[in-house]
Amino acid sequence: MKTLQTKFCNVTFPSPLISVSGIVTSPQANAVLAKEKGIGAITWKSVSLRERKSHPVPVVVPYSSGYINSVGLQNPGLEQAAKDILHIKKQIRVPLIISIVAFQISEFYPLALGVAKTRPDFIEINLSCPNVDDEAGKPFGTDLLMTTLAIQEVKRAAGDIPVIAKLTPNVVDITEFARAAEEAGADAISAINTSGPGLLIDVSKRKPKLGHKIGGISGKAIKPLALRCVYEIAKTVNIPIIGIGGVSTGEDAIEMIMVGATLVGVGSAIFGVGNSIFPKIAQQMQDIMEKHHIRDLKSIKKCID
Ligand code: DHB
What we know:
alpha/beta
């Protein structure tokens, strides 16, 4: 059988398939997911300095081409999250990526420092969050200077823990943000976060389907957008990429690697199928590799001009 083992930032992953942030939320559910065959790493739901409550329900709504969601970055805050991480870390044998989210540049350093004390394998910065210091509340990830400052602050706190910058597709030219992330010291890039935001209407109730009205679009609808972004980023930077967006089959995952991803995130498909999506995609990848005489994943990475 073909091996799916993958090296990313000098860390060995048993598979390139990783869970993305925000899908599996409870610490215990992550410990269960980590035991699934075919999974390469777990990404924790974004941690903020202080506790955040959920937006009004429903917070996730499926539609014909994917999902829209607006959870409101619900999490218990750094103090409780650090306890949860330390507890779960003992139970999992795959790398652990902790996502962090902040609302002001000044929050990134203490937050990353607190998370770094739990010794995760990686810290991922969720840059899609609005900057409350900005009058427009523009997400950090749509402003080049804010992107740079956020990454520099996290790098300063993270010490030897590699830092991943998670980019939003909601910009005109994602390569500018990839370049800024690399220059600011990011060790890797994950792309893409949800697109949009979008809006769905319940005609019978004459109101939006999401409690928060608007929310990020994910799932099958954004796969072509994600592939194009990863393709462009891979042509621009030398740091490795986690390709995320609409992956639910082995073919989707191989496409993501062919445009330049080293790891592949699975998110919405966990909602749709459950944890068994990981052994399913892993098996499909191995079948494709067998059929097309693909020696290993390294040999097909960034094979598209
Ligand atoms: C939320 C967070 C995200 O990073 C995203 O892309 C969409 C929604 C949230 O928690 O609401």
